[in-house]
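Reopening: 2-oxoadipate dioxygenase/decarboxylase still failing for me.
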Amino acid sequence: MISQWQLRAAFAARLSEMYGREVPAYTTLVDVSREVNEDVLRARGADAERLGSIGRVTAERHGAIRVGTPSEVRQVARVFGALGMHPVGFYDLRDAASSAVPVVSTAFRPVDGEELARNPFRVFTSVLTPADPRFFDAGLRARLEAFLAGRELFPPELLALSDRAGAERELPEADAERFVQLAVHAFELSAEPVDQAWYETLERVSAVAADIGGVRSTHVNHLTPRVLDIDALYRRMTERGIEMIDTIQGPPGWHGPDVLLRQTSFRALAEPRAMRTPDGSVVSGTLRVRFGEVEARGIALTREGRARYDALLARVDEQIAHRTEADRTELARALWAELLPDSERELAAQSLAFFTYRPVPGRPRDGTAPPGTVGGLLEQGWVRAEPIVYEDFLPRSAAGIFQSNLSGDGARREGDGDGRTGEGTSARAAHEEYDAAWLAGALDREVLDPYALYEQQQSRSLARTARELGLARTPSRTPSRTPRTPRTPPRAPSA
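Support: Ran it again with your exact input. Result attached.
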């Protein structure tokens, strides 16, 4: 019998092979990532594996797909549920970029620590928002929904095998092989001709909308390896003649601990596609929808830490608006150094990041009672803190990657003061309709809160530590000192 994690590992490996055949530059990206990781491991030794073993980091991938309807995303949940992957987090990309990106998203991934260590494959999954009148008027929405209702992304045999694997958490070897074959095929780029006029109609609204609703299938938009030094990778890819996007998204590279997620990509490639013209003839064309993303993962931040991060981003935005000649990366690096702790111990002591805690082995007991706070235990050497890797995504970074790879900005109509578009339809109501509750209903399953998952992992380790140290209660995570906070609060939520 083939267990879910083995199914997940096999699917991730086979998907990577398929994508490498379709997008050869992806293979170059994987090769350069491996070279960088080997160099970092040689230079930094065990410290390079502080956020995951080199085996895990080398094998790690996340994919990205896009679908059009609640029914389609519900089927996606069944397929990934077979692999032990659950929807975690809600991401609204519609206002996260200046370009028109009319989608909301979640990420399917394992949630158990052992499952993540075995194979941490994730798929960032976006679903179109046709009821949002800022992007689609009533006529285009009706045409789009009719088109989407007439296609089938996943064959019944795949869905049946998915449900069986999800319920039984394993499949016989022959059925497992069939499942992997069907699942990989479902995400291959189709050779079916694209209706040129219909695709261009949607592309005027959004290249992302055209990629979702302008074709009769879905496909992998990118497959992302993990690298330990994303700045070095960016330089090496450029040296090999691969055109990269202009920036690395996320926190700046600085002298302190890596936090959250940094991402970049090579630019979307002009891929040949068969196009059906209005007169019925088929001609050769090109579409730019797929790109090669790479990521460097850091420590998961608590809600307090994330608020600090968001405030820092808002402050960078504010200062750049008044100092247009300033280098954004250098400005961000300076603010990070001023307002974010530059050690893991301080991140833990100020409750800004998540860690697992373990008593220090062999510490002599001199009769002194251990302190009751995490900060005190760390300062006095009773426990050690091991960072919890950030397993999730940043809406602003994801939208930034999308935007950097679009052929145009598209069109997004802004509402007037009462939230209404020129048609008198409430844009605000449509905006609120596509929330986490809507997505959970579309998926027919709970969308898990990533903060709760990290908190559970940390809390279990603190409870275990309390037992081993003989403490009467779990150590408090009250900050050991007043943390520094940015002087300028964020003006709006940022990702």
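Residues 303-387+456-469 form one domain. If you still see a failure, please send the error message rather than a screenshot.
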